[in-house]
Structures are given as structure tokens and as C-alpha cells.
Amino acid sequence: MAEVICLDWRMKKMQNDLTSVEWREFKLSEIFINYHGKRLIEKQRVKGKIPLLTAGESNNGITSFIGNKIVSYKNFISIDMFGNSFYHPYEACGDDNIYFFLNEEVSKYVKIFFVCCINKQKRKYSYGKQFRQKNADNCKVMLPIDSKGNPNWQFMENYMKNIEQKYINNIVNYYNKKLASSYGETISIDEYRN
Question: What does the pLDDT look like over 18-40, one tens digit per residue?
Fold first, then answer.
């Protein structure tokens, strides 16, 4: 049975690339438009299908699903009052503990890269020092830059795609080994697809 191997040389190269590129600080407000969620206490919530975000580390901040008429967004980054950040490719709304960061011009992979950068800073925030509008307006993140000093979108996208591929390879290898140990010699997932 063939084991999935690193698909190309870029995977190994990317492991060292974080130190081989130049970095510069950018305000989130230079790249994203931000919106603040609205207060919606629990007894005012109507059951529905739209995810409602609130402060929390689990379930990407989703606390319930509502049907209230409230502003919702899609394909955005959220940051809650404790500095927890998530990427949401789906439509969702949020309470007053959530800040939405929107930019349709950057890919989901770039947004996921941003989430990683933002989450590195969450130790700055707590119940006593919450992430609020002034933070949303002034929060800075370090980003890789291109030769002109602009955010290097392609680097961020490629970096996250390579990490994603690494996890896919690990999962495929795991299940290929499980199948082989459970049923003896079997075909690999890749052979099954073909």
C-alpha cells in the first residue's frame, strides 16, 4: 500500500519560510471593515437556523441558532471580548460581545492566517480587559510582506494551503493504516478514488 508522501517540495520549504520572509505590523482596520454585534438577551432569542455568536472558545463561538431579524454576515473573521478569533465561511450573527471583520477581496486561507495571528494575542484580553471597539479599530498584527511592503497575500494563502494539505495527508495515512490493520492488505483511499 502506498503511503501519501509530501505532494511537492513546497511543503518542506514552507516550514522554514516564516523566518525567511520580512514581516511588518498592520492594523486590522487597514485591511478589514469591522462591525459590532448587537445585544440580544437569551429570552429575546427566537429559535431558527442562523448561528448566533457570543464570547467563548468552543464551537467557533456559536451559542445557539436563532430566527430573529438581526444583521448577519458571511465569510468573515470574528473576535470576541476575550480575544478569541474564528473564521466563519457561513452566515452568522453575533451579540454585543462579537466584532465582525469583513473583506471580500482576501481568500478564506488568508483569513485563516489572520485568525492564527490574532489568536496569538488573546492573552492580552480577559474579563477585566476586554476586546472592545477601540481594540477593533487599533488592533495590530504582524504579517509577511512583499517587496513593496504590502501584505504578502500569496505567501499567506500558500502557507495555509500547505498546512491543510499536511493534515489531509496525515488523515489519509491514518485511515490507510487502519484499513490495512483491520482487514489485512487493502487498497488505499487514493486507489479507491481512482
Answer: 888 999 999 999 999 999 999 99
d(CA 129, CA 120): 16
**What CATH number does the domain containing 74 carry?**
3.90.220.20
14 inside domain: no
Which pairs from 116-125 meet CB under 8 Å and 24+ separation?
A: 117/141, 117/142, 117/143, 118/28, 118/77, 118/79, 118/83, 118/85, 119/83, 119/84, 119/85, 121/83, 122/82, 122/83, 122/84, 122/85, 123/83, 124/83, 125/81, 125/82, 125/83
Asked whether 25 and 19 are in contact (CB, 8 A), the reply is no
Q: Is residue 7 part of a domain?
A: no
Contact 4, 172 (CB under 8 A): yes
**In the numeric block, which cell numbers belong to residue 80?**
470576541
**Span 84-99, pLDDT tens digits:** 999 999 999 999 999 9
